[in-house]
């Protein structure tokens, strides 16, 4: 899932759960107030799960809505709307048995709500950027391409409380996928009522999760989650409220934390370095990669592999994480983060490692850049580096700019704009070079590697390689039921991506933070939007 560089908590975390802090204030009855205040680096962009693409909106959606299953510790799943499920022997048919849960208005959540939501997401008119993640469901690709009716999608309601999904190929990690917001149910009556305004503020939506979203106008920086009395497991939800505040500037957030207005704050740069001895200081590793994309569609020179390789080799990633970011980040081994996925005890990042794809070698970089310029018939190159406008990203773009301008003949101008605007511009190829970040939605290398296939909507730079595409396709078709063969396909694909420098991994994210108080039980599981506020409480 796309994030800006400040969104460093809650992805495929390399921890299975964490204790988060709360204010611990007392009510007039003398008991601890069941309320916490939480910082997020950016405001919500939408609550329409068919159109949701960013981490912050998804984190909120995970508290207000619920899918078939919920993430649990140790890469396992817990029941959600489905209280049980079974998979056919060939791995292609998944049957989910639904409990009698309700929307916040008291009407039942049924299998038809899942059928409606999934069909709506893959419908071309919806223009969902996450439609590709449904591709393995029968007929999804044809429907999304406008070649088949959405009614032909491989999903059906067998009565009100049995939901059946038919896949084209076995997909062992499908259980993780259905925990994600894009697979949540939708209330068709609510969508019809609000039309294009659906999900644009807190009132124009329906909620079936532990909490209800309140106070979000569609543009403001504060909102709250309030306990949903209609939630099927409401008796076990102890928190009454979670207060959110979007704060772009880490120093502002730290001041609010120190004054008791926030119970959690992220740290970066010198703030992280200065607080390492604080008793509340913690670092959470993430399965998230910040990387540099090249617009090969708009800029012919960036189609030259030597120019791309030169830029990758010119950036000292170790210096970037140790001297510039300083927030718990680590130098990358590749696009797929280390320690996220393993096969036969071997880490994917180690097996797919290409030294030249993440190395620093300025001498070689200069030689390659000169060679590339000659090949494209240019003596110099002027490019704009685009990133979000938060402090972390500004610091990152400034460092990258300083590194790239060491290449003779290369001029880099930085453009830092609001995160939402940056997403839009990059989606429309209105950039030269862009800083992006991806945090895993599910613990499988495909979640990263699929992004760089030629026709993927998240491949903003439109890098394309036929052999890469073929390997990814093979891993998801003929080798889908052969775990070792599938793994090897993906390893080869990543090596091609790094050897061709289709993108430049800059760092694997970690999150330095301060936690205080006594609220326990909030857990961050293996997928990006997964905070489980339903189990939190103030001790």
Structural class: alpha+beta
Give the beta-strand count. 23
Mean pLDDT: 89
The coarse overall form would be globular
Low-confidence stretches: 5-30
Tally of alpha and pi helices: 17
Spatial separation of the terminal alpha carbons? 33 Å
User: What portion of the residues fall into strands of 2 or more residues?
Assistant: 15-25%
Approximately how much helix is present in the residues? 25-40%
Largest sheet: 7 strands, mixed
Provide the gyration radius in Å. Answer: 23 Å
What does this molecule look like?
The chain is globular, with a radius of gyration of 23 Å. Helices cover 27% and strands 22% of the residues. Mean pLDDT is 89; it is low at 5-30. It is α+β, with helices and mostly antiparallel strands and 539 residues long.
Topology (elements, then pairings):
Blueprint: E1 2-3, E2 35-40, H1 55-64, E3 69-72, E4 76-79, E5 82-87, E6 93-98, H2 111-122, H3 140-144, E7 155-157, E8 162-166, H4 174-177, H5 188-194, E9 211-214, E10 222-227, E11 241-246, H6 250-258, E12 264-267, H7 269-274, E13 281-294, H8 305-313, H9 317-325, E14 342-343, E15 346-347, H10 348-351, H11 355-358, H12 362-376, E16 381-388, H13 391-404, E17 410-417, H14 419-427, E18 433-439, H15 446-449, H16 466-475, H17 483-499, E19 503-515, E20 519-520, E21 523-524, E22 531-532, E23 537-538
Parallel strand pairs: 2-11, 16-17, 16-18
Antiparallel strand pairs: 1-18, 3-4, 5-6, 6-8, 7-8, 9-10, 10-11, 12-19, 13-18, 13-19, 14-15, 20-23, 21-22
Helix pairs in contact: 8-12, 16-17
